[in-house]
Amino acid sequence: MNSLKAAAAFGLSALVVSSAAAQTASKPVGYETVAINQQFNTFGLRLLGAPNVTSTVGAVSGTTVTLDAAPSADGSYIVEVNDNALAGAVVTGTSTGADVVLSEDLSAGLAVGDSITLRATQTMASVFGTDSTLTGAASEGAADLVSVPDGSGGFSTYWYFTGSFGGAGKGWRESGQVAGTIDPASVTLVYTDGMVVTNRGADNSLVITGSVKTAPTTLGLTTQFNYVSSVYPAGSTLDNSGLESQLTAAASEGAADLVSLPDGAGGFSTYWHFSGGFGGAGAGWRESGQVAGTIDAALVDLTSGMIVTNRGDAQNADIVAPSFYADL
Amino acid sequence: MKNTLLLVASFGLLVSQGFGYNAVTTNIATADGTAVPILDNTGAPIAVGAGYVAVGTFSAAPTGTTAVGDIRSSFTAFGAGSTAFANGVGAPGFFDQKYGASIPQGNADAPVGEQAYVLIGDGATLADSLNFAILSTGGVFGTEDQFGNGELGQVFSAENIGSSLIYGTAVTNVDTGLGVIFTDGVQLGEGGPAIPEPSAALLSLVGLGFLARRRR
Fold it and tell me: CA–CA separation, A18 vs B214, rounded Å?
């Protein structure tokens, strides 16, 4: 029931119809409307670029992977590992023929014969428009901001410059940039990341279209605050996400990893997994501040963007699609 | 004038977003014998809803012999939050506390950069407490990130209590009536020596052996 409710909210009917009608589509597709309310909005991409090719690894050498089948065109791709030791890993890569240079060296875990999918990238241009769908301005202080994790614990922030007098020179700029513009198509948005849109105008929304991923995904978590995507656009809950077995549970909130979901009113609802009292009794998900009992985690829908507070060392956490995605 | 007011209001909303800076601390990460119960000066575990727990800084670094009056006068508690013992398993002797305040990115004022201590007392307030324990993992206060999120966590267990106990008496094999024998505990009161780390204990034995040989 909860899955059906979520499906309606996220346009899953369109997703299913498109999948059935488009014989050439290898994955279901759909759309998602993301609210961009005033002030801060944490969200993630859950409709992705289309898969270009799924192939097996023919050779691995450092960051270079040679596939048994080349993608249809050279360029930048999202690279997904589908099976074996690194199943769920997501990195970026640049292909030349069948050779793909990855953004990270996976050679220690990637083996010949492993399955890999190259997926079209989502970029600042494809998600927010070459001419921004967000509020632009002549100064950064008045424009909406898009902050994207930079992979090293910080963020790269972008805003849309509406041009100087007469509108000349308009385009996307990076925070602090006072001249020229950047190419928004060159800024890849990795779908495992959570982004923050600072909306300085009225409430707004963003329609994101793309393919639905059905396979598990590995989220790389650094120590403390991680802005991540929940990856799966409909029906994903705290209960069926698989995070219970991936994050650190504890007998106290102060020692447990936290999952914080935007509450739509500028704040967050935060959850942690209680490992149980003495003897392990009473284990389950709790909301922040809860000192007795547990919640029904199946009723907690994951928002597109989440903040995972990792209280331990850096770790990987796999998030999985709801079971009904297997039928899509 | 109207525009100015709007701008101020907008800025106020911007800086209030995020979790703020939180100092979190607990002595029960796992509900088993590695948790470290806090006992009052009679040896009884401090009841849930009683006692005093705060995270903060000292103007002068405390030791195991710091006078009670100096503990009270030199401690500055950080943030807002309940100071009575509370935990998610409902067992006496354990705390799971969070204290929050705003420390914006770029702020260098106190307590930023100062060592954080967990001060535990047997009264309802700092002033009412007669006996204390002081713990610290050595962590220092930082600031929030650009979105207003920051945290300093201090988790105490049998694994680190030896290096974390600054003031108070280390006790071992503690039975608080829960059907679990805790490897380590802390009793409030003027500090005995901290529980030695295994390596430090070994060094002490080596030293004693050396002294014994010299005396012969």
Answer: 88
Domain boundary among A68, A87, A120: A120
Cα B53 to its chain centre, rounded Å, is: 7
Whether residue A149 is contained in a domain is answered as no
**pLDDT tens column, B12-56:** 333 335 789 999 999 999 999 999 999 999 999 999 999 999 999
**Helix/strand/coil for B133:** strand
Q: Is residue A28 part of a domain?
A: no
Cβ of residue A326 closer than 8 Å to a chain B Cβ: no
Contact A192, A128 (CB under 8 A): no
A275 interaction partners in chain B (CB closer than 8 Å): 30-31
> What's the CATH number where A78 sits?
2.40.30
Q: How far is CA A132 from the centre of its chain?
A: 20
Pair A192, A220: CB distance under 8 Å = yes
Helix (H) or strand (E) holding B210: helix B198-215
- Radius of gyration from C-alpha coordinates of chain B: 20
Structural domain ending residue among the three candidates A64, A88, A120: A120
Run of H or E residues at B9: helix B2-16
- With CA atoms as reference, report the closest residue to B147 among A159, A230, A41: A41
> Cα–Cα distance between A15 and A46 in angstroms, integer?
12
Q: Which residues pair with A145 in a beta bridge?
A: A159, A198
Rounded Cα distance, B125 and B121, in Å? 8
Model pLDDT, residue B206: 35
Domain count, chain A: 2
Q: Please say whether the beta carbons of B16 and B145 come within 8 A.
A: no
Is the CB of residue A22 less than 8 Å away from at least one CB of chain B? no
Q: Is A14 within the bounds of a domain?
A: no
CB distance A74 to A238 below 8 Å: no
The stretches of B75-174 forming alpha helices (DSSP H) are 161-164
Q: What is the DSSP string of A114-152?
A: -EEEEEEPEEHHHHHTTTTSS--BSSGGGS-EEEEE-SS
The residue-averaged pLDDT of B176-191 equals 93
| Low-confidence residues of chain A: pLDDT under 70 | 1-27
CB neighbours (10 Å) of residue A184? 22
Of A254, A276, A286, the CB nearest to B97: A254
B187 and chain A: CB distance < 8 Å anywhere? no
Residue A235 lies in a domain: yes
Query: With 0-12 CB in 10 A as exposed, 13-18 as middle and 19+ as buried, what is A77?
Result: buried
Which domain does A232 fall in, by range?
217-327
Residue A175 φ/ψ, nearest 5 degrees: -55, 130
ipTM of the predicted assembly exceeds 0.95: no
Q: Is the peptide bond before B92 cis (omega within 30 degrees of 0)?
A: no
Pairwise CA distance, residues A259 & A154, whole Å: 19
Say yes or no: B3 contacts chain A, CB-CB below 8 A.
no
